[in-house]
Amino acid sequence: MIKKILSRLYYDHVHHSAFGYRFRHWRGHEPFIELKPYRSQAVVSDIFVWRCDDIWDTEFELFNVTSFMFPADSIKETCDLVFFDSAGHIFKKEKIILEPFERKTLNIRDYVSPRTSIGGFSVFHHSGHEHRFSAQKSHLTERGYIGYRRKGDQIKSFCHGNLQSLAHEKGRHDYAYVTASKPHSKYYPQLIISDSSHIELVYTNPTHKHQKINLTFFDRSGKPCHTAEATLPPRGVHVISVPNPDMILHTFENRGGIALWRPVIFKHYASHFDAMHG
Amino acid sequence: MNYYFFPQIEPFKSAITLVNFPCLEAFPLRPEVQTIYATWSDGHQWHYRDVGRIKPNEAKEISLDDLPPDVPRDQHPYLFFHYQDVPATSKKLILSDHMFFMPTWRGNIKIYSPHTATSYEGDYQHEMVKYIKKGSLVSLSPMIQSKPGVLNKFILASLTQSPEITPHTLRFVNPRADEIIHETTVYTNRCNIVDLEGVNIPSDTIVLAVCGNMSGIPIFFSATADGREMSFEHTHPPASMVVFGNAGHFQKELKSFWLTRYAA
Hints:
The structure holds two protein chains of two kinds. By secondary structure, chain A is mainly beta. Helix content of chain A is 14%, strand content 45%. The longest helix of chain A has 14 residues, at 2-15.
């Protein structure tokens, strides 16, 4: 009986706590990709990539996530949006209120103008119902969907989020990092790039430290035939452009300080492009 | 072991990238050359056809057109690869956990035209087949691009251990208007394609796809009619809207509400 009570106390207050996650990650018992935020009422978001310039536009599909989780309760959300430049500096914050089940398609150019080029943004859904998630030791998260289009395109290429990054508690000004660092991690995206003559790999840095990334590209026989590297500041965004005119580059790996460092991939084709996550 | 499907949407073509390496170096890799099989159900049993080989560390793209002519396209073939020989037929779909790791071992599903291509990191994981006997679906999507000259298709890939091909009602719902906007029939063990042309897609909310008795992989595809622009992405399962702790609790609550309200 005492063993049962102690076990329950351990799992409720240590194992599933933010400290418990970090302790197990630090000991290497359970190397985590993401670490639970310390603040139980925090909500989580990816750092999404925005591209707005003479060629690119970005749209984000914002909808009231909490109202779908608790549909009987007619919940409104206040969404805190925070925009970063490519160096990770915050340059704009915005609040958007959503009615129950409401969706708004955000043209990101409206928020980043007159800046152009590329950067990141996060979306935090606050509703006053965060305690319902913390009661299950959980946190609400925003994982996408984001659409990219070029000038003159009729449709956008959709991609969902793939790297949960930051946590935010209502009313606070700081953003906590939830991505776990793991030095010298290799990640092998499970796809090919040899069907495209030009690939762009876009990385974000969802940690509090500068991170160096090294890429190696392989041909069809598995022979290394091209390399690239970059260093990203915290919350920074970097594009690695990879011309592949002879379509020799077939697969690639990336090495860095993040266990599952998944890029957003833009594969360019004759008439259009494909935005996808690696 | 994962399974991979071909969305067959005229006039486009589809291809699968099979990847015989895990996404992280810490995961083991079987040293054997593995056999690639096409499998399909005729409603009574599963059929298997050897369609090639894949070496360790190899990534290989196979289009539907590459498959031998005796693999019936109208029976919605799936691909998988295995280190063991499999029989010509079986009463239950052959399962293996030799690719089961977290994060999961993936592949890529592509739709292409002569001008462009679109793909997503896709597969049908053996755990879904093994553990979900009946299943249900609530998919939340803002990805329908409703405008003149743009094709929109909903793809629902289904795979079960039993070879039975059974019909189920799939409904599309406007949750803000509390209205069913489209209803159609989908089938188990098929890569179902639902045409959304003419469906009144709301711009002020997302669309729910609801099915009470069948689960699957929900994906949205859009393309211009000339095939010069395309988009293809799956929706997150509702449990992915919550991280850490007991995320499954919220999926259960969410699905319970929407299924009770709208499932046939």
